[in-house]
Design goal:
The protein has helices at 7-10, 19-36, 41-60, 68-82, 92-108. It has 112 residues and is an all-alpha fold. The protein has one domain (18-108).
Length: 112
């Protein structure tokens, strides 16, 4: 993964989003991974790479330095799920549910 896909976000817009909004965006890519799994490997891989990129942008956001362990763990579990859940038994369905909670919170505006 060498090319930055989310250029406008990497340029600073990502830092204007709440943690819930950032993780909800990651969840959108996880949902795309689920949608394309078994149907189009190229599209699934693209969604995986974008999700990693967004998680890396979230890890680089200094506002969440007290939450780095959780965010890094989510990244690790995403990699596990993409590799078939061999290490921790992680599934894309479980991650989709995890990130959905952030989408709901971001939409309600209660989690900033």
């Amino acid at each position: 993964m060498t090319e930055i896909v989310h250029r406008d976000l990497a340029a600073g817009r990502w830092g204007q989003l709440s943690l819930a909004e950032q993780l909800a965006n990651v969840g959108s890519e996880v949902g795309r991974m689920l949608r394309w799994r078994g149907r189009d490997e190229r599209l699934m891989t693209g969604a995986f790479e974008r999700a990693l990129e967004l998680l890396d942008l979230t890890l680089a956001d200094r506002r969440w330095r007290d939450r780095l362990r959780e965010i890094a763990r989510a990244r690790e579990l995403l990699c596990d799920a993409a590799a078939g859940g061999r290490e921790y038994g992680t599934t894309l369905e479980a991650l989709d549910r995890y990130f959905l909670a952030f989408a709901v919170a971001a939409r309600s505006g209660r989690f900033r």
